[in-house]
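Good morning,

Attaching, inline, the backbone tokens for the sequence recovery test we're adding to the shared suite. The designed sequence is right after.
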């Protein structure tokens, strides 16, 4: 039996700890409002994947929030790459045959993007959803690929390009989804609205 996993990385909406680049422009309170909007969107997005979804918190596990219907875990690791690697490792160790990770930063990702990513992994080893800022909004694989998380420039504009290069250097196959925009700056949010 094929076991699919959708890993969702979230934070709790705490002023000064979420959307800090947006906060520099519009303040902490407005940044929290934007992040609550992103969380609400992401919660609606994953409803179609209730049996596959697992949530990983970046700060602390909130026992009573909009994620209560899903298994909850704490992210572990010193940087984003190690935290993602550990989440993938846990899900593959628990029996997943395919796993896709998303954050809670994109208002244009749809259930179809996630379905396509999971379907692509039937015949391709890695799938990437590139973001317009040079990162990615989605990453998936059908077996653990630790090299994807080693020595990568997290939150930098060359992340997606260097990830794809690493995949080719390790003789793995990959597919690319549509390019979408993460909401990292106030201007991103204004464009979305």
């Amino acid at each position: 039996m094929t076991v699919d996993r959708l890993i969702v990385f979230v934070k709790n909406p705490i002023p000064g700890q979420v959307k800090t680049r947006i906060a520099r422009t519009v303040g902490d309170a407005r940044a929290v409002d934007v992040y609550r909007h992103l969380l609400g969107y992401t919660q609606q997005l994953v409803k179609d994947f209730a049996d596959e979804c697992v949530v990983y918190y970046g700060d602390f596990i909130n026992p009573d929030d909009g994620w209560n219907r899903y298994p909850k875990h704490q992210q572990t690791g010193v940087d984003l790459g190690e935290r993602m690697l550990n989440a993938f490792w846990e899900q593959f160790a628990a029996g997943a045959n395919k796993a896709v990770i998303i954050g809670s930063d994109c208002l244009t990702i749809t259930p179809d993007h996630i379905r396509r990513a999971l379907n692509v992994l039937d015949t391709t080893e890695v799938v990437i959803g590139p973001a317009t800022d040079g990162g990615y909004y989605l990453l998936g694989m059908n077996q653990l690929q630790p090299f994807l998380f080693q020595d990568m420039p997290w939150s930098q504009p060359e992340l997606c390009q260097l990830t794809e290069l690493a995949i080719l250097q390790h003789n793995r196959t990959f597919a690319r989804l549509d390019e979408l925009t993460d909401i990292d700056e106030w201007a991103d949010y204004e464009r979305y609205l």
